[in-house]
Amino acid sequence: MPSAALPYLPWRKPATESGPVYLGSRRLYILPTRAGLVFSLLLLGLLIGAINYGVSLIYFFTFWLAAIAVMGMLHTQRNLSGLLLQGCPTAPVFAGESACFKLRVANSSRRTRLSLGLRHGQGQGETRDLAAGGEVLLELPLPQAERGWKTPGRFAIYSEFPLGLFRCWSVLDLDWGVLVYPRPAADALPLPATEADDDAGVASGSEGTEFAGLRGYQPGDPPRRIAWKASARGGETLLTKQFASGVARRLYLSWWRTPERDPEGRLSRLTRWVLDAHACGLCYGLELPGRKLPPRVGETHLRQCLEALARYGQVR
Amino acid sequence: MARFGNAGLLLLSGPGRAGKEVGATFWLLGPMFLVLAPHAQRLPMWISLSWLVFALLCIVAAHTGRQPVGRRLKTLLVLAGVAGVLLQYGTVIGPSGGVALLAFLSGAKLLETNGARDRLGLLFIGCFLLVAQFLEGQSLFTAAYMTGAALALVAGMIATQRPAPPWRATFALAARLMAQALPLALLVFLLFPRLGGPLWHLPQPVAAHSGLSGRMSPGDISELILSDELAFRAEFEGPVPPASLRYWRGPVLWDYDGRTWHTDPALREDRLEATGLGRPLRYSLTLEPNQQRWLPLLGLPTQLPVLPGNPTRLGVDLEWQTGEPITQRLRYEIEAYAEYRLENRHGDGPPIPALRERALALPDGNPRSRGMARAWRGTAVNDVAIVTRALALFRTQAFFYTLTPPRLGAWAVDDFLFDSRRGFCEHYASAFVFLMRAAGVPARVVSGYQGGELNPLGNYFIVRGRDAHAWAEVWLDGQGWVRVDPTAAVAPARVESGVEAALPPGEHPGGEFAVAWLRPLHLGWDLVNNRWNLWVLGYNQERQHQFLAHLTPLMARWQGMAWALGLGATALLLVVGVAILPRKTRRDPASRECQRFCRALAHRGIVRGAAEAPEDYARRAAGGLPDLDREIHQITRLYLACRYGPGGEDDLRALRRAIAGLPPRHGRRNPTQQHRV
Predict the structure, then answer these.
(1) How far is CA B675 from the centre of its chain?
(2) Mean pLDDT, chain B, integer
(3) Pairwise CA distance, residues B35 & B445, whole Å
(4) Whether ipTM exceeds 0.85
């Protein structure tokens, strides 16, 4: 189903909010869906039939169906009203992947809320149910094309329950975002030579390092990374262990030593190198114009390097 | 990569998906089946059968996940269906052809229904077919059944909105929706303005004729009596006239051909000469549609009610006739003199000669009867004496009242009077009028209904086919046309208590009434039906006007109705809205404290991001405000314990204290300390 952003009144532009958002009725919009419009046409046809044939029960059932639709409208509004929304941190992704924004929805009322969903101009999440007094995480997967700190902008939480004749929604602009790392270069070039030091063993067989790297890089990651993994043709724990126990080598991954010349190409290359080096358990540093991360090992260092690459050239 | 991910998800959810599809199929097929089942008795067999086959294929498709019918075959099937309906009905629109086509297409659509939107669309067709059923009948039973079908439809609509709807909750919600919608529907039903006639002319369905036909051949009335169908209901305002006056007048029969009584040619237009006696009584009458042009009339009306769209005329014989056959249930209120004097002359002049001749005309035959009448004429002093002699004959001789008389020969009157002596009202009325005419007393046969059963629950009379009756009128100088009921001479119980009381044991019309203890049940059921007819089915423009004007004169005008409709609907919506919309609930106390804390820190320049976890925020805040490091970590620990951990009241109190104990702010911090993740 194509996803379209849901509208709002232009003079009530949703402001960027932080912290929990309470969905009061003043924030909710409600309009008939396309099915609702079709249904109203059907009712009109039935009414004309009732008038023409003068059949009382056709009048009555037409009015009853209409009243059911109207009551359904109230139920739809009730389904969304009074929820408490809070954005959750979004796991960083690589450019080209889909970032999964998560919205924690709390229902402090004693009524179950059904079929809640998120919608955005670029995608929409699956609808979920929310038990009385419970909480649920609504997901909004949005494809990320570029590196950097990306904010999703306006999105809507909506529901069409129970009849699908009306859609109730609220447009929000939460103060959240996702860090998008540069897309790792597709081809695996060997790592640049280590700088100095006795153990001049350059990370050789680039194939092997790639295998290992993937495994070490993201333990227990969500399935959307599967594709990236698949591009590396499967990873094995064996290699990871081998290198993890091995001697760490010192290595500077430098902006100036990439074969690429354009900035984004360099960043892609560096990202690939950083991932490979981490996978091999190397001790590596990162050198960017104006920023230098000294050689280290470990998960935190990897994240710092990737963040530096993601934010390169950006104000914040 | 995203595409890859989706494919993976589909693969992962593969096995569960087929189950969901099967469930969704039943949520769709169930309501549609319920709606279509009553149509099936009128639909051609091939449509019903093909629908069932389509439904079966739909189930198969849901189970296997593959569509068994290809696109080309589907197109062919639809075309064949349209052609079939065209052949059968000659049209694909209107109440019969249109419904048949929709029924067929709703089956064909089952073959390519995937996704919530398709299912919802199909259920809309179901709504249409449900309502179309009322074109065929509007009985209480139909309404109850269709309410059930509507419940299933609404539940089906709800089910389209969820992947795996639970049975009970879905039906409960559907029932709640319908119950909440009912008052609003009733309000609109009462107040929505009714039109006097259709928007455009529609052909009326032709039904079998029933009731009095304007001809009386042997067996006609007994057929009516045995059919025992409802003729009309009558409700009196004030005192109820006794049975001896409850003659509901129908066609008056002038001419006899030796076998059949009829009026042919119709009487020429003449002015009705009649004067009412005593005080008029008022009653209302609800006539069942009978495709005839007679309206039953008790007494002499002071003024004729106007029937919308059907001009009526009161004939010279006090016959009330309509211009158009009665095809819909009809209700009228009337004021009439139960006793009256009916004449066929102008002023005090003699009766119109042509009429007198016609009232004396007889075919040849029946010599014995003629001889007897002539003998009476010779001895009698006046016409009244002859009438008395004839009635005495019926009373004193061995005449029997029965609905199963023996067959009569060519001279029916002679056979009846001298041989069989068994019969019911039509025999007695016919023989009596024959004798009168033979003796020179102008007479005619009047057919109609007599009596009726009082329903004490609703205080109205139920008049059925078995109350059909025939009696005589004779012309007496100075009195005009006088009603004489020879049947009453033979079986007085017929007039006083109805046909059942008059019949010999073992001979009962309408077996359903034979069981005495069921009678109150029947009467109660009839009352419900009567009210249903009156208030629901018969709620037309006139009745609406009457009812609303009775409530308040303001609503007699359309402005009043519009206001009442608008205000009433708003009020009902408000009531339901207030009842179901959640009020702003008290937030979890720990969250409230947390917000206070975040506000306090925000004032110090550290704003919590929307997506920031409490621990991260605490770390950041402690970094930015080193002097509050200890407090911040303590508060965070307490908050987490209260919100997510086993924290009890003590922790909450401690949290409150800790937040209240934060030292007041000293001046504004440098805003550059504000960090972001």
Answers:
(1) 72
(2) 82
(3) 50
(4) no
